[in-house]
Model the fold of this input.
Amino acid sequence: MGIVTLDQEEARRIAVRAQRLDAAHPSGGIVPLVEHLTFLQLDPTAAVAPSADLIAFTRLGPSYRPEHLAQAMEEDRALYELKAQDDPVQPPFAMVRPVSDLALTLDRMARGPIHAGWRAWLEANPRFRQDVLDRLRDAGPLLSKDIPDTAQVPWQSSGWTHEKNVTHMLELLQGRGEVAVAGRIGRQRTWDLAERIYPSGIEVVPEAEAAPLRDARRLRALGIARPQLVGDAGIPARIEGSDREWRVDPAGIGLPFAGRTALLSPFDRLIHDRVRTQELFGFEYLLEMYKPAAKRRWGYFALPILHDDRLVGKLDATADRTAGVLRVDAVHEDEPFGPAVGDDVDAAIAELAEWQGLTVERR
Done:
C-alpha cells in the first residue's frame, strides 16, 4: 500500500480511538487495557489522582478501582513494573507493563545497559552486584534500605541518584532482567530475583525480531505517529496541513467514530508527543508543576480536556481528600465552550469526583 492521505479530523479520530478514548469503554479490565496501551506510566503525583489510575479510569470508567492494578501486579503477576532506562522511544520513568510482552524485551534487557557510564559502573562493581543478588536470594523480597551498600566504586551523578548505590544497582539489574519489583509498601518498591517474579518458560524473541514487533504494538496504541517513535510499523501517511512524515496503523483507518468527554492525565499518551498534539489537535500544553505558582498559566497539575476528537481546554483542580472535595479552581477554555460542551465537561468533573468519593467544590 502506498502513502495514504488523511485530513486532520480523521487523523485525530484514529489517535483517539487507538488510545481507547472514544465512546466505547473497553471491556476486560486493567490487564487487556495495558496490553493494548503497552504500558502505564507510574508517577507519585496525586494532585487529582495517581496518573496510572487516572489513565485507567478514563478508559475503563468508574468500574475501575486502584486495587485492580495492585492485584494484577502483585497477586496475579499479569503486569510488572519496569523503569525503561534503555528504550530510546519510552520515557525513563517507572512503568507498568504486561507480562505477556516480556518475551519481546528480555533479549534486549540481557544485553545490558546501552549507556556507557552505566556499563562501566557495573563492570567496576562485580562484588557489589553479586552481594545484592545473594542478599535477595537469601531474604527477598526486600526494600532497598534493607540491602547493604558494598559498592567498591560509588555512583557519581549530578542528579538525585548521586551515591544512591543500592537503588542504582537494583535499577540496572532490573534493566538486565536479573531482579524485579515484587510489590510496593506505600511508595517504596520491594525487590526480588526476577526468576521468582516473572513466569518461567518464556520463549525469548531475539531482538532483531522483537524490535519491529514492539514498534507495531506501539503504533497500534497510538494510531498515528512520527516514524522516529514507531520505525517502519504501519504504512506511510500524509496529514493535510502537515509537512511531516507520519506512520499510521491501517487497521484504524475509516472506522466509525463516536466521541466522549474525558479529563486526561498530563502523562496521557494521547498528548505525550507535543509535536503531534500541536499538529493534529492544535493544542498547546505544558505540565507546570515544576514552575513557580505565579508563572503558571493553567495550574499545578492541569488536566487536558478531550471532547469528541478535539482537545478543548484544561481543568485546574485538586483532590482534597481530607475535606472530601475535588476543588475546581478553573476550567480554562481554549475557545469558548458552547452549552453542550460545558454540560459534558461538568458531567466529566462530577464523574471524576464521584469515582474518588469526593464532592465538587468550585471556587
Summary: The chain has a mean pLDDT of 94. The CA atoms of residues 327 and 361 lie 5 Å apart.
